[in-house]
Amino acid sequence: MALRRVAALLFALALVAIGAIGARAEVVVRDDRGVEVAFAAAPRRVVSLLPSLTESVCAIGACDRLVATDRFSNWPASVEQLPKLGGLDDAPVERIAALKPDVVLVSSAARIIGRLEALGFKVVVLETRNGADTRNTLRLLAQLFDKPGAGDAVWSRIETEIGAAAKRVPPAVRGGRVYFEIDSTPYAAGPESFVGEMLARLGMGNILAPDAGPFPKVNPEFVVRAQPDVIMASKPNLQEMRLRPGWASLRALERGQACGFEPAQFDLLTRPGPRMGEAAGVIADCLVRIAAVH
Questions:
Q1: Measured between alpha carbons, how far is 180 from 199 in angstroms, rounded to an integer?
Q2: Are residues 187 and 138 in the same domain?
Q3: Residue 23 above 50 pLDDT?
Q4: Does the pLDDT at position 236 exceed 90?
Q5: Backbone angles phi, psi at 69, to 5 degrees
Q6: For residue range 242-251, what is the model confidence (pLDDT) as tens digits?
Q7: How do 177-183 and 187-188 pair as beta strands?
Q8: pLDDT tens for residues 53-103?
């Protein structure tokens, strides 16, 4: 009898151990709402509704799990062949549901979060306003997709590339105050945004104060009064700046101390993801050109 009791006890312990192993297979992440989202295993079918998240998924080695993206996701080239599901305001819930995703990756601005969760879909909400957010997003995605260390490896590469870009910025332009236009409304990149932080890493200043917020809407007259040393914007926006009331008097425009970026470059510069190091190189190239002219 004693032997049977011992055998039964050992069997029970084995079952507990097996259960513990099964429990460890579960993946639980806390998204940027502070909501814990649990998965029985790492998701295999993924919908990404933000370009920076799409790029981050691919950078950590999980691109093959994407089954659809938003309409703006265009890097790497392989994602252009995936079904496109609108943007922040018009993503079609029915089409997403038909794909039976294990997880939908969105920003907090997406309007469909509640509807997707009401239908029983797992939604992970991620915000990447600055560098720290970007690093945390890469780490969370690596955890979610069971890619140990992949997020830190991507971030380490970004840091190395930004450091190399900073060394190329000519002393003649260092410390110059930059107006970086996000949109012609105009919205600008503030010091606390990932763009503003990158400019600071490259030794540049900002016409906006730190308390302006990451991407504030600015008064056009403020830009004229601020007289930035360097202007950066998309090429179309830069080309029409002189037509804005008072903006023809901006000395940076008069002196050619401005860079207008082609659409692909501007996408690169305004996405907080794995290509931020490459973006720093594009800004450094801009500053090298300005220094060479002056």
A1: 9
A2: no
A3: no
A4: yes
A5: -140, 175
A6: 999 999 999 9
A7: antiparallel
A8: 999 999 999 999 999 999 999 999 999 999 999 998 999 999 999 999 999
Record the pTM.
0.89
Q: Quick one: tokens of 62?
A: 């999980």
Under 8 Å between Cβ of 162 and 168: no
Alpha carbon distance 113, 118 (integer Å): 9
Check which CATH number belongs to the domain holding 244 and give it: 3.40.50.1980
Tell me what pLDDT residue 3 has.
47
Which domain range does residue 207 map to?
Answer: 171-293
Tokens 């009064």: give the residue: 225
Mean pLDDT of 123-152: 97
* Structural domain count of the chain: 2
Burial letters 260-272, b for 16+ CB under 10 A, else e: bbeeebbbbbbbb
Do residue 189 and residue 270 come from a single domain?
Answer: yes
Where is the domain boundary, 114, 148, 182? 148
93, exposed or middle or buried, with CB in 10 Å at 0-12, 13-18, 19+? Answer: middle
Kindly write down the DSSP assignment for every residue of 181-231, as one continuous string: EEETTTEE--TTSHHHHHHHHTT-EESS-GGG-SS-B--HHHHHHH--SEE
DSSP state of 78: G
Q: How far apart are alpha carbons 84 and 33 in whole angstroms?
A: 25
Q: CA-CA distance, 262 to 233, in Å (whole number)?
A: 9
Q: Is 35 helix (H, G, I), strand (E, B) or coil?
A: coil
β-pair partners for 284: none
